Amino acid sequence: MSDSTCQSKQKNSPNLTPLERQFIVCTQKGLPIVSEPYRAIAEQLQMSVEQTLAMADDLLQRGIIRRIAAVPNHYRAGYIFNGMTVWDVKDDEIHKFGNLVGKLPFVSHCYRRPRKLPEWNYNLFAMIHGKNEQQISEYRTQIKELLADVLQSNAGKSNDMLTSSKILKKTGLRLQSK
Amino acid sequence: MMDELDKKILNRAQLGIPVSDKPFADIAEELGCSEQQILSKLQDMLADGLLSRFGPMYDAASLGGAFTLAAIDVPEHRFDEVTEIVNSFSQVAHNYKRQHQLNMWFVVGTESQQEIDSVIKDIEQQTQLSVLNFPKEEEFYVRLYLPV
User: Fold this and answer.
1) Does residue A115 have a pLDDT over 50?
2) B116 in A contact zone (CB under 8 Å)
3) B77-85 — which CB contacts under 8 Å span 24+ positions?
4) Do A170 and B69 touch (CB under 8 A)?
5) pLDDT per residue over B96-125, tens digit each?
6) Is A109 within a domain?
7) Is B120's Cβ below 8 Å from some Cβ in A?
């Protein structure tokens, strides 16, 4: 780990204990790929391995940790195409159908966001990833079929897909350590 | 090139490893290889850049701070200049050019909601363009899986 200390600021962290914040600061850059990865974390936090595992479990249960996993570089894994699909979904159906869209394995982000009428009538955003344009277009069609009965059009089209033509900036979002 | 074992390991590791004292040994047993193979292959993939990272994926919002997605309709002849202004804000984490009338889309991440509003106001002032703010109203749980 490149962090030499695990001290962290104690502000702006809803429902996190100071120790949990330290756990996050220690692990947000990654977990060491060694036989017993939690041992090093436990030492840094001056806890037992058992306590550290219990904390990780608890953070998972609470949804603060989504999963502990390998994150492939999209481009290197061959997923060089992405599309931000946007949909005009009936307000009273969006909770149910947003969850269904999020469960599709090719969707990396899925949010309800506000419409900005008249120029923007879409309230559901789903980012999709594929290996070629055809795949992206098939994925978009799959979402369209899923949403068929709940799409509408508030003075616009019922959906669109914005492909990215250039990455202008990409940095990580991190909890800052002191 | 990735061999079959590399692919199996990468696909399995994307789904999430168990919380246990020896999680890689657990996966090894499942895949029928050795713990050492898992460790060295994952280390190589990380060093090689095939993996962006390995570890807990945190829900950004529960770490505190505030985030939003924002967009600008940038006149094509001003695109480079506006890119420079927007990217100069350390609170702008990602910025993409997209094929649409709203052709610039960026994520703002700050310590507080107040700071989001002030970053957006500053960007509007410096670019003399309107920024459309699309804060998330609901986040839907995703299970991205990119099989190799």
Assistant:
1) yes
2) no
3) B79/B103, B79/B104, B82/B127, B82/B129, B83/A168, B85/B123, B85/B126, B85/B127
4) no
5) 999 999 999 999 999 888 999 999 999 999
6) yes
7) no
Question: Do the domain assignments include residue A168?
Answer: no
Domain that holds residue A94: 81-163
Residue A12 has pLDDT above 50, yes or no: no
Task: Specify if A151 maps to a domain.
Answer: yes
A100/A158 same-domain check: yes
Q: Are residues A134 and A158 in the same domain?
A: yes
Judgement on whether residues A140 and A86 belong to the same structural domain of the protein = yes
CB contact under 8 A, B19 and A53: yes
Residue A45 counted as domain residue: yes
Q: How confident is the model at residue A2 (pLDDT cuts 50, 70, 90)?
A: very low
A64 and A12 housed in the same domain: yes
Amino acid, res. A35: S
Assess: ipTM above 0.90. Answer: no
CATH of residue A133's domain is 3.30.70.920
Q: Give the alpha-carbon dihedral of A29, A30, A34, A40, to 10 degrees.
A: 60
Give the residue ranges of DSSP H helices in chain A.
18-27, 37-45, 49-61, 94-102, 133-147
Query: Is B88 an 8 Å CB contact of chain A?
Result: no
Give per-residue pLDDT as tens, B53-108.
999 998 877 777 788 999 999 999 999 999 999 999 999 989 999 999 999 999 99
**Interface-testing mutation among B58, B123, B145, with chain A (most A C-beta atoms within 10 A):** B58
Verify that A159 and A88 share a domain, yes or no: yes
